[in-house]
Design goal:
With 404 residues, this protein is of the alpha/beta class. It is 29% helix and 18% strand. The chain is built from eleven helices and 13 strands. The strands form two sheets. The chain has a nine-stranded mixed sheet. Strand 5, helix 4 and strand 6 form a beta-alpha-beta unit. The chain is globular.
């Protein structure tokens, strides 16, 4: 049984491009066929040969974030982890985390477990990462691993050989151009890290089983110079294999650096244009939070103390802890921020927005509708994707359908 799928269509006199917002697939057919055939029938036929329509949700895996420590080797001015204790995830906690995750996966009868290691700087506790991965590798589950790092230690081949042997996704966070990155992300000695990160990301290219990703933090101060870091990424070997995306640093509404949703929409569209100019590997579909762990009943974050949270950005907010892995029972159900408006064209790209972003802005963990932002950014993305055949098309030319 199929779920609802949002479809974009744009036509000229001869061709019609059709995009699925469920799979990101884009198909071109003749406009004559498009005009005389119901869109449901067209999409059904396409789906027989190319994944196009969303299938009924089946829960096949769980996603767990493991915070190996809150220690960090940098002094980022905007870090959301306000409390940085010196506790490292130890063997006892690692054993219990492993036991808890395997129990939850067996309880939900899932086949896949995705584990993301983060911090602080997680590579300050590589020992815990190695121990947990080696334990998971002895299970029956299909495992995938990722790490979110500031990238400073990615010149250590011992780390990289381990990541390569276990097919890690490695995400490095950057703060825009060299000027802004080195202003925000300083080492303890005051030196910037921009040039070091470029070298380290490029070095990852020699490990063929590591998937590289770069998150670029966007702020009111740096967004006009994002193009300069993109230029430097393009100088890397096999840069088209690096997945690059941008996200905004969350600040309160009364902060002088706050960026409104209307401003964010324009900034994202401009950045997407810069991605396409350089053939950067990035979004097929733009989503705002999606089905994050705050909204579901099975994913969670656990820190070096064994404390459990429903969002990894809340790990320094001890009052948001929902329990500890040594407790007899921890309720990991979603917090109610899930949006049930399944008729919405962008339900699957949102599910209620980012509760953490809303929390930083207003102090409340609650859903937020960003329909206009998601609508404009996805349509702008689509126009870039089909610009070779529809160069003069406008957002208003895109037809949108919601089908099963």
């Amino acid at each position: 049984m199929n779920m609802q799928t949002t479809i974009y269509c744009i036509s000229d006199s001869t061709h019609t491009a059709i995009k699925s917002l469920s799979t990101g697939s884009i198909i071109s057919i003749s406009t004559e066929i498009f005009n005389r055939t119901p869109i449901e029938e067209i999409c059904s036929e396409i789906d027989k040969s190319v994944p196009f329509l969303a299938n009924e949700e089946t829960h096949i895996g769980i996603n767990i974030f493991v915070v190996t420590n809150l220690l960090c080797n940098l002094e980022c001015s905007y870090c959301f982890e306000r409390i940085k204790d010196n506790i490292l995830l130890n063997e006892e906690i690692a054993d219990k985390i492993f036991e808890t995750i395997v129990y939850k996966a067996s309880y939900y009868k899932v086949k896949e477990i995705d584990v993301t290691f983060t911090g602080g700087e997680p590579l300050l506790n590589f020992k815990a990462i190695k121990e947990l991965v080696e334990m998971f590798e002895r299970t029956k589950f299909t495992m995938t691993y990722a790490i979110i790092t500031n990238g400073v230690y990615l010149n250590n081949d011992t780390f990289l050989e381990f990541f390569d042997s276990h097919n890690f996704d490695v995400q490095i966070t950057m703060d825009g151009s060299k000027k802004h990155h080195d202003l925000y992300r300083k080492q303890r000695n005051g030196e910037g890290t921009y040039d070091l990160l470029l070298d380290n990301i490029n070095h990852l290219n020699y490990y063929t089983n590591i998937k590289r990703a770069i998150r670029i933090n966007v702020t009111k101060e740096n967004y006009l110079e994002i193009k300069y870091v993109l230029d430097d990424i393009c100088k890397m070997e096999n840069y088209k294999d690096i997945f690059v995306y941008c996200d905004f640093v969350d600040v309160s509404i009364d902060d002088k650096t706050y960026i409104s949703r209307k401003e964010r929409t324009k900034i994202l569209c401009d950045i997407i244009d810069e991605f396409f100019k350089r053939e950067i590997n990035s979004y097929d579909i733009y989503s705002d939070s999606g089905m994050c762990m705050m909204k579901n009943d099975y994913d969670f974050t656990v820190d070096a103390h064994g404390n459990v949270f429903k969002c990894y950005s809340l790990v320094s907010e001890i009052d948001k802890c929902i329990g500890n892995i040594f407790d007899k029972y921890v309720n990991i159900k979603g917090d109610g921020s899930y949006c049930n408006k399944k008729e919405c064209e962008y339900h699957e790209q949102c599910y209620g927005g980012c509760p953490y972003s809303k929390y930083i802005e207003t102090g409340c963990l609650e859903r937020e509708c960003n329909y206009s932002l998601i609508d404009i950014v996805n349509k702008h993305l689509f126009l870039n994707q089909v610009s070779d055949k529809f160069r003069n098309a406008k957002i208003e030319d895109i037809k949108i359908y919601r089908i099963k």
